[in-house]
Amino acid sequence: MKKTTKSPRESNARRGVLYFSFALAVITYLDRVCISAAAPFMMRDLGLSVFQMSVVFSSFTLAYSLFEVPTGWMGDVVGPRRVLTRIVLWWSGFTMLTGGAWNYRSLVLIRFLFGAGEAGAFPNAARSFSRWFPPEERGKAHGILFLGSRLGGAVAPGLALLLIRHWRWRESFVLFGSIGIVWAVAWYRWYRDEPSEHRAVSSQELALIRGSSPEAMTGELRKPRVPWKRVITSPNLYGICGMYFAFGYGLYFYFTWLPTYLIQVLGFSALAGGFFAGLPFLLAGGANLAGGWLTDRLAVRQGLKTARCGLGSLSFGGSALLLLTSTQTDQRVIKAVLIAFALASADFALSACWAVCLDVGKTCAGVVTGFMNTFGNLGGFAGPMVVAYTVGKWNDWTLPFYVSAAVYGLGALLWLAIDPQKRLGPD
Question: Alpha-carbon distance 345 to 24, whole Å?
Fold first, then answer.
């Protein structure tokens, strides 16, 4: 294939991969979070109880947990170009079909199949980064990817409620789904699995991407033997999985029940509720970038224990304290702001969560990350169900915040049990 002779500065095709990945993250969270804003209206029109709506929420998370590894494996075998095109078309179709749900069972099935598609988004984005970015740029790429997810989460509630106000909740899902279809078509036309196959990549940029690694130059990546017994019996793994369960448990309240709580319990209007439902994700985006910068800086100056575990424990502890404080005020605006900052506090440790998997896993980092993310999604599966159970049994929306604070507190303690200098795999 003919190559251009652009200088490395002129040839920056990998920036296009970053733009597409950022947009992908925004779309995943638009499609994922919009149902939380629509939930009060869906419950009314479909006659759903609080518990039934929690099952709808959790069906997505269950599918996401089950299909994350298989869809990530597909990206390794087939390549992100074809896999992301197919799964984005898949989940966009089921996003649109959500607007056509006619009863409880149909809604559970549609959201389960939607989650099965979304499960492959971030693993395949990471796979594209491994081929298009040199090691020193991958951390920044992941930071921008997570920023896109938080911005999508910030925009989704307000946008969904605005659409519902002017049309209906059913039409809002059709619009959100159509955005993904546009992305999938553009991605397939522009992206290539190997930078060398892209006509916009110069020889200089290709050399920069590949660096001096013989494995990257040949495209033959070594697949080390995973010491499974050592991994699954490691206290480090238990600590990592436990703390990320706590992270996922708290996070999914914001994905699911927060708009309902703001509108039906605190009495905000639909537009004000949309703003306060998006505020946590907006704050979390900034916290994520700041936390990523700080954990890398602390790693150099104070060591990994402080950079990962100290930062993580303080962040989770801050979330617990903010949630507890929110239960002690009757001022609804203050309550909503405290709840928003609780998510930002937890997200301040998000980069440390993923970095500690690289620290302890080394060549087995993918396995460690897979375990961690699976348990995070299991926390996300449990969270909405616990909210529904406690509210349904005691008719008290304060109790879920006490439970979430306790889970975050446990996560803060589990952070201290992790030793980032104790490796699970060979260097």
Answer: 25
Whose structure tokens read 């992206």?
Answer: 191
| 152 in Cβ contact with 26 (< 8 Å) | yes
* Residues contacting residue 413 through CB under 8 Å, at least 6 positions apart: 313
Residue 169: how many other CB atoms lie within 10 Å:
22
- Per-residue confidence in pLDDT tens, the chain, 427 aa: 444 444 445 557 888 898 999 999 999 988 888 888 898 899 999 999 888 998 998 899 889 888 877 887 787 778 889 999 999 999 999 999 999 999 999 999 999 999 999 988 887 887 787 788 876 676 677 778 888 888 888 888 888 888 888 888 999 999 999 999 999 999 999 999 888 888 877 778 777 777 744 444 444 445 556 677 888 888 999 999 999 999 999 999 998 889 889 999 999 988 898 899 989 999 998 898 888 888 888 888 888 899 899 999 999 999 999 999 999 999 999 999 999 999 999 999 998 888 888 788 766 666 777 788 889 989 998 998 899 899 989 999 999 999 999 999 999 999 999 998 888 755 5
For residue 102, the SS3 value is: coil
Note the CATH number of domain 227-427: 1.20.1250.20
Tell me how many degrees the CA angle 378-411-320 measures, rounded to the nearest 5.
110
Q: Quick check: 274 and 259 in contact, CB under 8 A?
A: yes
Q: Where in the chain is the domain with CATH 1.20.1250.20?
A: 11-218, 227-427
Contact 243, 236 (CB under 8 A): no
Q: How many CB atoms sit inside 10 A of residue 317's CB?
A: 19
Cα dihedral 180/182/187/188 (nearest 10): 110
The CATH T-level fold of domain 11-218 is: Growth Hormone; Chain: A; (1.20.1250)
> pTM for the whole thing?
0.78
C-alpha 414: how far from chain center: 21
Contact 85, 105 (CB under 8 A): no
Q: Give the CA diameter of the chain.
A: 69
